């Protein structure tokens, strides 16, 4: 049985810091990894905001970087509060502990509902939007039994398998991860389900701004969150080119368990899940397969992940490398993704200098970040 009593660690952001964090993550060219590097270099979000123009200019930006204004951040914060939601920082006690462990975890999450669900052990249930009756029943059974065993059930609020999993775990606790803003749930017919989740014992989570309508490219980001929040993911009925397979792949990359329910070779909805089994996913024919697989993981201490910023810290930015060192680092980069450690070894320069130049290039829009912490130079048109 999962231990539902989570040990919470972290320090709450002040209102001023929350505004600064929101401004920073909403500024141009600032993603989760860049956000973390900026805090590490500048010491605080406020310092980072002041340094954005200079850093991007040093990286070779051809135009001035857009920095989100205080009024923009206050307006979004007001909208979030009006909807009964709030922003949660990665270093705060209620931030999902397993998510904190992944590379490039979102520094800020918009959350609405019962925050205690965020820190309980969780597993994901995902699968076909066009689910069969038996697939939906199986999803409900897994979710119900998982909830009774002390797990929060996490899914993506989609039709089919997701809906069945959320409904079955409403009494015990479920997390709905959205691809758009919390006020833009998709599909629209699941708005009543989302209301049941957030007004009951469940929680809704999104990393996107309020008002953001989900687009096709936002769903893989949502799937990444599902994989990051959970200890493992159960895939039920996934076609060969299914978003659920993206969730499973990311879960494996994060060191999570991947469970797959076998299906008929004649059913196109099962080709993806059967493929996962060939690749080594855990054969799942009942709830106990999931509970037995997760039991050792649910005892792990997930609360020692990296904190992006210690409130009250005031770092002193280090001096930038000279032009010669910067040229050496840029020359070491190309269109092929490389490991940052390889750049450090190849150039023989200090790691701090390499990271700072990569940060400058990133803010200038001249760097691509890839899975596994790899980087490449954006080719100029």
The portion of residues forming beta strands comes to 5-15%
Give the fraction of residues assigned to helices: 40-55%
In terms of structural class, how would the helical and strand content be classed?
A: alpha/beta
Overall pLDDT: 91
Provide the spatial order of strands within the biggest beta sheet.
1-2-6-5-4-3-7-8-9
Tally the structural domains: 3
Q: What is CATH's topology name of the largest domain?
A: Rossmann fold
CATH C-level class of the largest domain: Alpha Beta
Biggest sheet statistics: 9 strands, mixed
| Radius of gyration, CA atoms, in whole angstroms | 21 Å
- Tally of contiguous helical segments: 15
Describe the structure.
The protein has 381 residues and is of the alpha/beta class. The strands form two sheets. Strands 1-2-6-5-4-3-7-8-9 form a nine-stranded mixed sheet, sandwiched between helices. A three-stranded antiparallel sheet has the order 10-12-11. The termini are far apart. It has three domains: 15-96 and 105-110, no CATH class; 112-299, Rossmann fold (3-Layer(aba) Sandwich); 323-377, Arc Repressor Mutant, subunit A. 41% of the residues lie in helices and 13% in strands. It contains 15 helices and twelve strands. The mean pLDDT is 91.
Could you write a compact summary of the structure shown?
The protein has 381 residues and is α/β, with parallel strands linked by helices. The chain has helices spanning 15-25, 32-42, 45-58, 70-82, 97-100, 133-148, 161-168, 191-199, 218-229, 243-253, 271-278, 287-294, 323-332, 340-347, 351-363, and strands at residues 86-89, 108-113, 122-127, 152-155, 174-177, 203-206, 232-236, 257-260, 282-283, 338-339, 367-369, 374-377.
